[in-house]
Structure formats: structure tokens, C-alpha cells
Write a structure and sequence with these properties.
Elements: E1 2-3, E2 9-10, H1 16-21, H2 24-48, H3 80-88, H4 97-109, H5 111-132, E3 137-148, E4 159-173, H6 178-244, H7 250-284, H8 293-296, H9 317-320, H10 322-343, E5 348-359, E6 371-380, H11 386-454, H12 460-494
Antiparallel strand pairs: 1-2, 3-4, 4-5, 5-6
Helix pairs in contact: 4-6, 5-6, 6-7, 6-10, 6-12, 7-12, 10-11, 11-12
Amino acid sequence: MFSMGHKSSVNLKNSPQAFLCQFPEGRRLRHFAKFSLALMACLGMVLISGCAVGPDFHRPQVSVPSGWAGPTANPVEQPAASGSQKLADWWTLFQDPTLTSLIDRAVASNLDLKLAEARIREARAAKGVAAGGLGPALAGSGAYQRSRSSAENRTGASAGDQYQAGFDAGWEIDIFGGQRRNLEAADADLQAAVETRRDVLVSLTAEVAVNYINLRTFQQQLVITQKNLAAQRHSAQLTRQRFEGGFVSGLDVANAEAQSATTAAQIPLLESSSRQAIYSLSVLLGEPPAALAAELSPTGTIPGAPPEVPDGVPSELLRRRPDIRRAEAQIHAATARIGVATAELFPKFTIAGSAGFQSNNFSSWFDWVNRFWSYGPSMSWRLFETGRIRAGVELQKALQEQDVIAYRQTVLSALQEVENALIASAKEQAHREALASAVAANRKAVSLAETLYTEGQTDFLNVLQAQGALYATEDALVQSTSTVSTNLVALYKALGGGWQYNPPAKATALAE
């Protein structure tokens, strides 16, 4: 026998549960034990079902050639680290401080890049929201209510106050992995946003370089045009003097003046194009169009192409090009969302509880006797929506299939871009060499034609033809020099160079 202070007795042969139930605190311990067992059982189910419904992501397999079909830009074997570094900051190989400065400033202040960074922050916040679904939720509440009862009840009409404050908690046990798949999709979306920013960075560096090369090209064309205009005006003056001396006809004078006027007409167009290139660069740097006019208006040379270009192998594009990496992340997100949709076919288990104080008097609101609480598990199952849920699963599968097709198309486009850039770069080099020889020959022809014309041994038509041919080949040589550089920029962009670049301290840090 077990004796208590109030002289009652309990039979020890009874069960421990019966013994505890005879006391309020014992009953609470029994309820707490049941709750603990239920919680442990649910947690055990989560641990046992470590896998989530839906397919797991696997990197898509695509076949790429072992080498490039076109001529490689750099046949000399280079260490991998050296090639990677050249791709990371390829514009420094042009050895143009102005170009390097413009790219540094563009990375620091370009608005498209800032927009991409804001979208990374958006995706990171969305991932945090998805992660929050894995844990319990706790909410506090408080309320005051004054009410009046009907006069037809037994006690007659009455009015009273009610005060209530407490907490509500709930936790959906992610047995079938819907929440985990949702977090997986959000993480893949974040990776896609990071790759989008890198893709914007690659495009930005290439666009700044191309616009800068175009600016210097227009300026060099302007120099050539002004030089040829001066020579043509000198020839026109000489022709007029010979006409006044009676040595040539007025036709030669008219032809000479027509040629110089035609050349002069090109100058306003080149000046306009130069100014527009400056405006484009200013906007790329996130500044008003005329902000760089004073800095870039002085004539500069076209950045020369470096002698060596790292090329690598086609398979390296799959890890270097941000657009391919972004497409892969989009497949990952779409695959995870199939699991999110599939989890809706299964029941959801939730542990919920509430606790607080409730009283009709403010003074006794938080007295211990006015407490209340409740807890327990619950289950919900969308049994009569199976058709709709299965249609949602098929929808996500179709979207994932589209992302896989888009990924393969992105890879093929990347390979084509590199092949185009390789062949264009190699053939333009040969084109430029031929133009350089043509310019040298035409200069000799102009000198000989002017000498013979002055001596009266040839007519002015030969002078006009020689001067026109020289101007055309000099202009073509400038454009070819520009094309060699822009083709090289296109090759670096196609190879996925530029996003590994670490800007100076004043620039925005790369998203990792």
C-alpha cells in the first residue's frame, strides 16, 4: 500500500497509467507522453522516407564533337590556367587602357547588370520563403470582444467582455517531400538567376568592346577621308590652274571637283556615327548619352587583336558558358516541380497546437486557472481532385521536356557561334593582309598618276581612278582591321569568357 497525505490509498497492482490518472499532474504527464510518442512517430516517418516523390535531377547528356571543325585561333598548346585567365579578362589582351577602363566602369554601373543582381536577390528571398515551409510555424494572437446575449435565454439579456491571448503552432510533416522539392526548385531558380547575371556580364563586356572598336573605326575612317579629301582638293586646284593655262579642258576640273565633293559628303556621316557610338558607350556605363563625349572624342587607334587566343575543346563550353549553365538550372527547377505536383497526390500530415489565456475580466486575464491549450495531429487528403492533380503533374512534365529541348538547342547554338567566330577570325586575317598589300600598291599608283599628269603624259581620268582606288582600299583596310578585332570579341564571347572576371573594388562583386 502507498499512503498519501490525505489518507487515501492506491493499489500498486493497478497499471501505471491508472495510477497517474488519479492525479491532475499525472494526467498531464500521460497526455504529454502520448504527444511525444506521436511526434516521435511522425519524425521517424520523415527519416524513413528520406527520399521525395518525383524524379531526381540528372544532368542532360548531349553529344559534342571532340574538336572544332574550323581552324583554331591558337594552335600552340597552352596551360589550362593561362587559357582560363585570358578568357576571364580577355579585353586586357588588347592592351588598350581606355577599353579596360570603360569595361571596369560598365561592370560597376550598368543598369542591366544591376537589374540582374536585383533578380538574384529576388530568387534568394524566394528560396528563403520555400525553406520556411519545412519548419514549424508559430503565430501569436490577442483579442477583446464585448457581446450581448438574447433576452429569450434562461438568464435574460446580458452583456459581457471576453479577453483572449495565446499562440498557435503548426508543422506540416514533409513525409512525401513536396516541401523539399519546392526548396530544390527554388535553389535551382537561384542558380539560374546567378547564371543570368553572368550571361549579362559576358554580353556587357563584349558590347562595350564592340562599341569602342566601332568608335575608333569611325574615327580612323574620318582621318582617312579627311586625308584623301585634302589630296583631292589639291588635285582639283592643280587641275584648275592647268585649265586656266589652257592645258586641260573644263571636264577635268568638273571631275576633280565632283570627286572632292563626294568625299567631303562622307565626313558628316562619319562624325554622326562616331558621336552615336559615344552615346551608346555612355548608356552602357549607366550615364547620360553625352557623358563620355569629352573623354572619347579625341581620335584613337583601333585596338589590335592579340596574337594568341585560348580556344579549348567543345565540351568545355558546357561548364563555361553561362547560358548553357542557366538552361541546365532551369531543367533542374522544372524536374523538382514535378515532385511538388506529385506530392499533392498523397495525404498531408500536420501537428498543430494552441495555448493561451481567456477570461471575462481584464484583472484576471492572465491567471493560471484561465489558461487553455490543445494539440494533436491531423491529416488532409485531396481525394476527389485526383484528375486535376494528375493533370498538374503532366503539365510540369511537359514544361520540363521543353526545358530539355531548349537546353539542347542552346548547346547547338553555342557550338555554332564558336565555329562561326573561328572561321571568320581566320579568314578575316587573310583578307586584311591582302588589303594591306593593295593599299601599298595603290599609293604607288596615285604617286605615279599624279606625276605623269603633271608632266602631261596621261589624262586626269587615270588620276581620278588611282585616287578613288586608294581611298576605297584604305577605307576597306580600316574596316577589315575593325572586323578582325570584333571577330575576336565574338570568339571570346562564344567561348564563354568574361564572367569569371573580378572587377575592381569600386565595381559590384560578382554573384556567387
